Amino acid sequence: MINNGIPMVNGTLYSWADIVATIAGVPVTGITAIEYGDEQEVVNKYGAGRHPVGRAKGRITPTAKITLYQEEVEAIQAQAPNGRIQDIAPFDIIVTYIPETGLVHTDKMRNVQFVKNTRAWKEGDTGQEVELDLLPSHIEWGSK
Questions:
Q1: Does 1 have pLDDT greater than 50?
Q2: SS3 (DSSP) at 85
Q3: How far apart are CA 44 and CA 5, in angstroms?
Q4: What gap in Å lies between CA 113 and CA 10, rounded to an integer?
């Protein structure tokens, strides 16, 4: 193993098997991917001279998407008032990292709603993974 001069902390890093995702408090087992993040507008502010004299921060824009097996999507869809997952009331998605070391880390996506619901099949497919775009109000990073 290549050593970059940095000592390993407990020798273990996060892996997919360490992640537990819950949607509205229910653990999701038919999940194959999850992606979330936020971006904040940061701009230079100018005064005298050619260089910025400071910076200002603007709005924070969160993004997220989740990939689930079609059967999992259908189970969620069954909870929708009219069969459209986009009409489900806002809910939270909690992603918890539970490594063998026991150092638990939790991120919370708040007030999430589904943005789209699509299917795409092709010859030879043996299952359907459905990527769903999400719209959270904000993300609580490393929340308790």
A1: no
A2: helix
A3: 37
A4: 37
For 58: left if phi > 0, alpha if psi spans -120 to 50, otherwise beta; the answer is beta
Q: Is 72 helix (H, G, I), strand (E, B) or coil?
A: helix
Average pLDDT, rounded, for the chain: 92
Which residues on adjacent β-strands are paired with residue 55? 44
How much is the pTM?
Answer: 0.86
The angle formed by the CA atoms of residues 21, 128 and 14, to the nearest 5 degrees, is 30
pLDDT digits (tens, 9 = 90+) for 6-63: 666 656 788 999 999 999 999 999 999 999 999 999 999 999 999 999 999 999 999 9
Distance of alpha carbon 50 from alpha carbon 24, whole angstroms: 51
**DSSP code at position 16:** G
